[in-house]
Amino acid sequence: MARAAVPGGLSGRRAWRDATLVERRPETDSAVTLVLDVHDWPGHLPGQHVDVRLTAPDGYTATRSYSVSAPEGGDRVELTVQRVPDGEVSGFLAEALALGDTVRLRGPVGGWFVWRTTQPEPVLLVAGGSGIVPLMSMLRARDGADHGGPPFRLVYSVREPGDVIYRDVLSALQDSDVADVHLVHTRRAPEGAARPVSRLRQDDLAASGWSAEDAPTCYVCGPTGFVEAAADLLVGLGHAPERIRTERFGPSGP
Amino acid sequence: MDFVTRGFQGRPRSHDGRLPPGQYLTGDFPVLSAGPTPPVDHDEWELWVATEDGTRHTWSWQDLMALPDETVTVDIHCVTSWSKLDTEWRGVSLDTLLADVETSADFAMVHSYGGYTTNLPLEDLLDGQAWVAFEYDGDDLRPEHGGPARLLVPHLYFWKSAKWVHGLELMLEDSPGFWEQLGYHDYGDPWREQRYQGD
Questions:
Q1: B14 interfaces chain A, CB cutoff of 8 Å
Q2: In angstroms, what separates the C-alpha of A172 from chain B's closest C-alpha?
Q3: Are A35 and A25 in contact (CB under 8 A)?
């Protein structure tokens, strides 16, 4: 396996930098996008994450990893934070952090769950809940690529319509044929939805253009149970395990 | 004193010095892996150890079950910042498995079913520090947690405790494994917070 070329020198990526909140965008009742200004940001690849560290007055620190939700754009780093019950860090970021406030941030981290604009093969993205975040970075990078790019399909599983993050962006990507977007509702679907309410099924993942013979690279992100099930379904459809990249977060990613 | 985040207090601190720097406690058991969970049958399961001169030692599942096992209670620390205290495992000590292996290697590359690899100094696998574990919390180790058997090296960040362990390649020189090639630390001591290369 080749060493991954990742932006920024090693020393640059492990340095903690000041990150100042410059914009806050509510996405759903429980998810918010934070746009941070990070001086001298070395850049990142779609799919990578960063570490965010909060420090209390007594020196206690709390560090969590958050996926970046938009491709590289100068010193701007966009994170989407899903507030989890009793989340020590997510709750603070989602509610207390005010415009102009500063946290510490380092990265980018992770050279495996990434999509590079030079990859020619089709891409199948499979998201469960807030697992959409790193995949949105890939979708936006594909949308912004100068010479178009390979076909993208997103299968996005949510409990109910109100849980859909980036709804407007997804509609725009669908309308401009950048990506085929397929929503899966597991508890409640919008009125008139063609697909009945159910957990992710094999036929949600079987689409012409992204079959095992088309050899897409599959990126699966979500809670553990979802990722286990989705990856098993993909293997069952004949996708080669080495073409399935997963990123999981447990119920305790606060 | 590091930079203080305005308005941040954090959770009550109460862990008796058992949490390494930058870690937080979790009650459940998150899963992290790079790809699908590989299906591994006990009937086909094999553990191999290959030395630097090419000598190969192998154990079937029945061989492993016939070896003396230990039950250990340890704290585990994931590089993604969660720690879990007092986890109980049953497995065979690497001291037992490597007792008759002749080698002058200083390092090991651990190979997993599914292709994952991770590198460690051989001495970190010896002296009661590492096990091939097949039970967690009194039950068979579940596939998403590395079953049928995973390496358990609790004094290092948990990615070193390779799931679905298949083999140990003993090496004279160190060489980076899967996550280590992607920027994670070659050693990974949680108490020195060695998360990434250069930490």
A1: no
A2: 30
A3: yes
* Residues of chain B above pLDDT 70, percent: 98
B185-190, long-range: CB < 8 A, 24+ apart: B185/B157, B186/B119, B187/B120, B187/B121, B187/B156, B188/B79, B188/B156, B188/B157, B188/B159, B188/B160, B189/B155, B189/B156, B189/B157, B190/B20, B190/B21, B190/B23, B190/B77, B190/B83, B190/B155, B190/B156, B190/B157
Confidence of residue B1 (pLDDT cuts 50, 70, 90): very low
Q: Is any Cβ of chain B less than 8 angstroms from the Cβ of A32?
A: no
Residue of B5, B82, B181 to mutate when probing chain A, most A C-beta within 10 A: B5
What the block records as the tokens of A163 is 């849980």
Nearest to A111 by CA among A94, A139, A134: A134
Say whether residue A76 is in contact with chain B using an 8 A CB cutoff.
no
Interchain contact, B34 vs A249, CB within 8 Å: no
- Per-residue model confidence as pLDDT tens digits over A65-118: 999 999 999 999 999 999 988 889 999 999 999 999 999 999 998 889 999 999
Q: Rounded distance, CA A125 to CA B119, Å? A: 31
What does the buried/exposed string (b/e) look like for B3-13 if buried means 16 or more CB atoms within 10 Å of the residue's CB?
A: eebeebebeee
Instruction: Please name the helix (run of DSSP H) or strand (run of DSSP E) that holds residue B66, with its range, or none.
Output: helix B61-66
β-bridge partners, B78: none
Using CB atoms, pick whichever of A62, A111, A228 lies closest to residue B182: A111
Tens of pLDDT, residue by residue over B63-103, are 999 999 999 999 999 998 899 999 999 999 999 999 999 99
Residue of A nearest to B195 (CA): A14
Give yes or no for a contact between A72 and A7, defined as CB atoms under 8 angstroms apart: yes
Partner-chain contact A244 B36, CB within 8 Å? yes
What are the residues whose beta carbons fall under 8 Å from the beta carbon of B172, sequence distance 6 or more?
B52, B104, B105, B106, B107
Contacts A254 to B, Cβ<8 Å: 24
Element (H, E) at B95: helix B94-97
